[in-house]
Amino acid sequence: MLLAGMLLSVAILVLGGLAAGVLARNCPERAVALAVGANLLAAGIGLVIALLTLLTGASQMTVLPWSVPLGTLALRLDPLSAFFAVPTLLVSGLAALYGRGYLAGKGPSSWLWFNLMVASLVGVLLSADGLLFLLCWEAMSVTSFLLVILEDERAEVRHAGQVYLVATHLGTAFLMVLFLVVSPGAETLAFPRAGTLPPTLAGLAFVLGLVGFGTKAGFVPAHVWLPEAHPAAPSHVSAFLSGVILKSGIYGLLRVVTWAQQPSDWWGWVLVLTGLVSGILGVVFALAQHDLKRLLACHSVENLGIIALGLGLGLLGLSGGSPLAAALGLGGGLLHVWNHAWFKSLLFMGAGALGKATGSLQIEAAGGLLRRMPGTGGAFLVGSAAISGLPPFNGFVSEFLVFMAALELLRSVHPLAGAVGLGGLALISGLAVACFAKVCGVVFLGEPRSPGAEKATETRRAMLVPMLLLAALCLLVGLAAPLVIGVLDAPLGQLAAGADLGPVRASLGWLAALGGLVLLAGLALGHALSRRPSQPGMTWDCGYSRPTARMQYTAASFAGPLTEMFSFVLPFRRHGKPVEGFFPDAAEDHGEVPDPFNQRLYEPIFRGLMRFSLRVRAFQHGEVQLYLLYIVIALIALFIWEAL
Amino acid sequence: MISMLLGLLLAPLLAGLINRVKAFFAGRRGRPLLQLYWDLARLLRKNMVLSRTTTPVFLLGPALSLASLVTCLALLPLGGPALLFFPGDMLVLLGLLALVRFATVLAAMDTGSSFEGMGASREVAIGALAEPGMFLALAVLVVQTRVVSLSELWAHRGLDLWNSAGLVLALVAVALFLLLLAESCRIPVDDPNTHLELTMIHEVMVLDHSGPALAAIEYASSLKMWIGAVLISSLLFPFHTGSAWLDLLAGLAVVFLVTLAVGLVESTSARLSMLRVPQFVGLSSALSLLALFLVIR
Questions:
Q1: A529 contacts on B by Cβ (under 8 Å)
Q2: Phi, psi of A71, deg, nearest 5
Q3: Cα A312 to the chain's mean position, in Å?
Q4: How confident is residue A569, by pLDDT bands cut at 50, 70 and 90?
Q5: In a mutagenesis test of the B interface, which of A369, A510, A568 is the best target, namely the one with the most B β-carbons within 10 Å?
């Protein structure tokens, strides 16, 4: 029944998308309305079903007739897939609503791809068969690629699309091997039963999954496509890509974990270290970025790192025999999957609204936008506080759980892992506060730095409402933390038998109560302060009487102390014309921070590959006579081989 | 409850105490011990000047900081368990301190002043380095006592802990003291008395606040200092007297001793160059990390 409902939701998405594709040329407005309506309807139905599955812990499986070699149309809806379906459908509905306003009638046929992308992700979550999974996975990759290159008149968008396509297929190659390895028989690619893979095979599956799914999740060093692809897409697509599609990698990895008889110790360690490296490097890269959407994309690397860190600590707890640490780590990682979906899609939508209003996504060109766009600015501030892990918002709740997991390991089975996780996560959250203080301070506060920012006005309501809803959700999850973790019980049960979050429920209650108290008291006090008599003046600039917006601190200077501290991982590239001589001409100074992994790891590899391919190409020259000669040589060689 | 009220009442006294120590070393009589109280009362009666650039964030910053820090007091044991305690309360305390930093920095950036941007930039850089130090220092105590709440850490402190791992606890004490200097913006990280905007950190972030808003900030920063000193006193001072009142008195005495030590450092050392500050703050994290490895080896 539940599964059928979920399939209905997929069917609505597909039909709405197809209808939009057909109608796009002749009546574009109706096409868009149909597609968005289908999204909202599917989200409504699907969310109810996913939440029911989570709360009841029910698991349903069905095998439909399908005549494809190796494949079966095996579908399953269990708490783990339902857990990931919730952000998928919630964000897709809101992103569709936002996208309608954002695209403002442009590219009506893109809604076909949008709906198919959402539907294929739900398909990924429902598949219980390797072939079906790969088909859905591939459909998701291709449709999201088509959306990334929606604005393909810009060269950087085409480049980003290319990088995305290559990266996603490299990852998929590992997944193909993964499903071949784990399939229970030669005739089928069906998923193995939960808890059946012996340790060696499970270890191999874990490594293959880590590379394949890790590429999708953007773990360092397989993250390089992410800061290219996500900023290139239109903002409602970026919101879905960063908020949800990345999580499909986490889902896949967790699915592999459920197959193992017993997760080994080193899985946890690998995830903890991957998470730490991704988390720290992600936020450090973000500090050096001055394109808002690129910066947000780097923060996705960071947050997926936090998720991996939490899951890793949880697995260590599981293998070390501490069910509480397992519950805290896995629960914190899982909850961060949800939380990141809310605040990251909110932030990308905010970035899109900002780009529309000011005509630029450059942080250095913005400023003073909270006055001009109070709704967008307020929602963005909430999202920033949430992503920085500050109370009373949702990010703090999941980071609290991960911190608690580290403390629990510290005092029981894995003190070293606990210490590493604790210190690393503390550094990550400190740096995240710094980075979002930069973004909020430079973009929304102060004076506008460009004519575009000067003239900005509040965004249209269709784009504002989804942002406000997501902001409310960020606050609500923070304030209702002890209730919200109820949804974790069923998926946790699938990952770690006996894991129970009960012991922290009281702590989360206090956390939520104190957070709410601080927020209320702060707002009341701020209101009281604003009622005190005051007179307007100007900002103090050492008595200088005509301050201009250009005298404000820039984002590059703001991040300067930290980017210099991390200069060993940030290869600064500066060029321009320096100030020279006693009577200098006009001078300029440009700087950018290319991704070091791109520069030092992937570029040499791909250059080598290119060089090799060029050599090999000498054999393929289009002359038929020589091709015949190859065949003759090959035949003779075979004869000789046979004769020997 | 009493310790919370004491914190609210006595926190501004610490600044006066430090000033008296500094005056003593400089051979002056110094300001009255209660000067900050009078300053706060005077500021509260004044009107404010609000820059035309600012938004509600400008006043919300100090308000949220003050609300968070007062809430922190409820989690802080002193001479007895705190008003509230639960597993993980230390994480909530640190989260609230991070919120204070975020709110203060945004209120500073709201003015659009380059000076305040500079101070904010330094504040977040120092904060990002101080945060791991704080977490790791508490982690050492967690490993030793196997409890994860500040009040339980307070209950578990004692001489046997110092006997079995004195070196580790000494490292933690030094780390916490360095963090106290950094977080409450004292020499050698920041100089509360400097008059050059270019060299300030905390003071430059509040240049444009005036009247009651400035009072909120001043009071909040004295609370922050109080919290740092109480953490050292309540987590590391080894003696239990058995009587709640004596415990409270002893705890307070240690708080004042720590304050005197801050004054001593401030009187006898010079301020570090801004480029060296990250190393200084990083040192506290390194010390905590060293202590942590010593206990879990």
A1: 48, 59, 62-63, 212-213, 216
A2: -100, 150
A3: 18
A4: confident
A5: A510
pLDDT value at A545 more than 70: no
Element containing residue A73 per DSSP (H, E): strand A71-77
Predicted pLDDT at A315 = 96
pLDDT digits (tens, 9 = 90+) for B153-179: 999 988 888 988 899 999 999 999 999
Residue B39 in contact with partner chain A when CB distance is under 8 A: no
- Check whether A173 has a pLDDT greater than 90: yes
The domains of chain A are located at: 1-168+219-249, 265-523+554-575, 596-643
* Distance, CA of A422 to CA of B90 (rounded, Å): 13
| Interface membership of A518 toward B (CB under 8 Å) | yes
Q: Is the pLDDT of residue A544 over 90?
A: no
Q: Is A552 on the interface with B (CB under 8 A)?
A: yes
Report CA dihedral (A333, A338, A339, A342) to the nearest 10 degrees.
160
* Global pTM value: 0.95
CB A419, CB B136: distance < 8 Å: yes
Candidate from B53, B63, B101 with C-beta closest to A526? B63
Residues of A in contact with B68 (CB under 8 A): 518, 522
What would you measure as the largest C-alpha separation in chain B, in angstroms? 59
Inter-residue contact A209 to A133 (CB < 8 Å): no
Of A279, A226, A594, A291, which is closest to residue A423 (Cα–Cα)? A279
The mean pLDDT of chain A is 93
Interface probe with A: pick from B102, B122, B204, B280, most Cβ of A within 10 Å:
B102
Please write the tens of the pLDDT for every residue from B57-103. Answer: 999 999 999 999 999 999 999 999 999 999 999 999 999 999 999 99
Q: What would the pLDDT profile of B205-264 be if each residue is shown by its tens digit?
A: 999 999 999 999 999 999 999 999 999 999 999 988 888 899 999 999 999 999 999 999
CA distance B221 to B229: 12
Which residues from chain B sit within 8 angstroms of residue A540, using beta carbons?
51, 111, 113, 115, 207-208
Euclidean distance between CA atoms A122 and A629, whole angstroms = 52
Contact assignment for B213 to A529 by CB distance below 8 Å: yes
User: Which residues of chain A lie closer than 8 angstroms to B285, CB-CB?
Assistant: 423
Nearest neighbour of B128 by CB, restricted to A424, A431, A547: A431
Cα-flanking dihedrals φ and ψ of residue A262, to 5°?
-150, 120
Stated as kind and residue range, the H or E segment containing A72 is strand A71-77
Domain containing B226 equals 2-296
B99 touches chain A (CB under 8 A): yes
**Nearest-neighbour CA in chain B from A314: distance (Å):** 17
Rounded to two decimals, the ipTM of the complex is 0.96
Beta bridge partners of residue A75, listed in sequence order: A62, A127
How many domains is chain B built from?
1
**Minimal Cβ distance to A522: which of B51, B67, B285:** B67
The distance in angstroms from the start CA to the end CA of chain A is 65
Contacts of B172 in chain A (CB under 8 A): none
Q: What is the rounded CA–CA span in Å between residue A526 and residue B62?
A: 8
Distances (CA, A) of A433 to A407, A437, B101, B169: 22, 6, 8, 29
- Tell which of A369, A523, A558 to mutate to test the B interface (max B CBs under 10 Å): A558
A184 touches chain B (CB under 8 A): no
Contact A429, A388 (CB under 8 A): yes
Could you say which residues from 133 to 172 on chain B have a Cβ atom under 8 Å away from some Cβ of chain A? 134-136, 139, 142-143, 146-148
CA–CA dist A14, A20 (Å, integer): 10
Inter-residue contact A369 to A448 (CB < 8 Å): yes
Contact between A333 and A402 under an 8 Å Cβ cutoff? The reply is: yes
Look at A525 and B67 and tell me if their CB atoms are within 8 Å: yes
